């Protein structure tokens, strides 16, 4: 058994140049191509209108005032007098009411 404090020195010389580069060939790196479609937009021959899609769908319409249901202020003149008779007035029964009875106050003696 060797003492623990002694170092073991290798006798063979170590090659410091790597040799794996000779075993693999270097690939050529190709340029990356874009996956998006080509630009296919063509400008229209006809000039665009000034309206947006919102203005096409919701065009401004002039508001039409509603017809008033209020009767006219002018009084109508009738040929005959106003008849204010109603069934309630004609069939109303008027009962006579007696005055309330009061008891006589006692005199102080």
Describe the structure.
The chain is low in regular secondary structure. Helices cover 9% and strands 0% of the residues. The radius of gyration is 59 Å and the shape is elongated. The model has no long low-confidence stretch (mean pLDDT 84).
Number of E strands: 0
Q: Note poorly predicted spans.
A: none
Mean pLDDT: 84
The portion of residues forming beta strands comes to under 5%
Distance, first to last CA = 152 Å
Percent of residues in helices:
under 10%
Helix/strand-derived category reads little secondary structure
Shape: elongated
Cα-atom Rg, whole angstroms? 59 Å
Count, helices: 2
What's the SSE pattern?
Answer: HH
> Can you summarize the main beta sheet?
none
Layout of SSEs?
Layout: H1 53-57, H2 87-91
Notable traits:
little secondary structure, 109 residues, 2 helices
Quick overview:
With 109 residues, the chain is mostly loops.
């Amino acid at each position: 058994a060797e003492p623990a404090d002694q170092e073991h020195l290798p006798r063979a010389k170590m090659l410091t140049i790597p040799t794996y580069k000779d075993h693999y060939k270097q690939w050529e790196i190709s340029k990356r191509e874009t996956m998006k479609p080509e630009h296919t937009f063509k400008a229209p021959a006809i000039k665009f209108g000034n309206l947006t899609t919102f203005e096409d769908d919701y065009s401004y319409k002039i508001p039409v005032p509603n017809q008033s249901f209020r009767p006219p202020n002018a009084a109508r003149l009738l040929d005959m007098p106003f008849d204010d008779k109603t069934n309630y007035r004609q069939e109303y029964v008027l009962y006579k009411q007696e005055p309330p009875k009061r008891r006589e106050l006692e005199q102080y003696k």
